[in-house]
Specification:
Blueprint lengths: L13 E6 L6 E5 L22 H10 L10 H27 L13 H20 L5 H22 L8 H25 L16
Antiparallel strand pairs: 1-2
Helix pairs in contact: 1-2, 2-3, 4-5
């Protein structure tokens, strides 16, 4: 997003309302009302106000594989709740397909498409949220490694692949790894609720 500096607003009349999704120019609201269009590029702000949940979700998706910079607490939770709503809806549809025998039963891999699509933007968003708190990507990396390792071992054991290597004991260790992963994930979610320190840090300027 383009970094811009706007002149000091008139006290009590104009307040900063975020950046234009079209050009990145700062938007000023007047008496709490955001203009319908950006004065710089004419982008419509009627249904997509700066820093609105929709704007934050679109920003997360636009930075799909980008871990650079920082993301605000509002952006993190807007995308997280939207992703959870989609996953809950998919789970409900999954249960309906396999409990109503008259409904078609898609292959299991079909239900993995949505989580796979959401995994990358959620990972990069979480890294940027940790950057916003002045922390590196270590926690998220640990979370992903524990999740991948534990899940892979459990799946291999269930399928009977490499039985001489993936033993029952290895499967028990994998379940312990996933339980530890829940703790790491809880720490990440707790950190995501915290206020950032004001001003720029080593990962860039504070997000608007």
């Amino acid at each position: 997003m383009i970094e811009t500096h706007i002149s000091a607003p008139t006290a009590g009349i104009h307040t900063y309302a975020g950046d234009c999704p079209g050009c990145g120019q700062g938007i000023l609201s007047e008496h709490g009302k955001v203009p319908h269009r950006c004065n710089t590029c004419g982008h419509s702000l009627r249904s997509e106000k700066p820093d609105s949940p929709l704007y934050n979700i679109k920003r997360s998706l636009s930075l799909y594989c980008d871990t650079r910079g920082r993301s605000s607490r509002r952006e993190f939770w807007a995308f997280t709740f939207a992703a959870l709503a989609l996953l809950v809806g998919e789970t409900a549809l999954f249960l309906a397909c396999y409990t109503h025998h008259e409904w078609p039963e898609p292959p299991v891999w079909v239900w993995l498409i949505l989580p796979a699509l959401l995994a990358c933007p959620f990972t990069t968003l979480t890294v940027r949220r940790l950057h916003d708190l002045g922390k590196g990507p270590g926690l998220m990396t640990t979370f992903l490694l524990l999740a991948l390792a534990g899940t892979a071992v459990i799946v291999l054991h269930h399928q009977g692949i490499w039985p001489e290597l993936i033993t029952e004991n290895a499967s028990e260790w994998a379940w312990a790894t996933l339980r530890a992963d829940v703790i790491v994930g809880s720490i990440i979610l707790y950190l995501a609720t915290q206020h950032r320190l004001p001003g720029p840090n080593e990962y860039g300027p504070a997000p608007k």
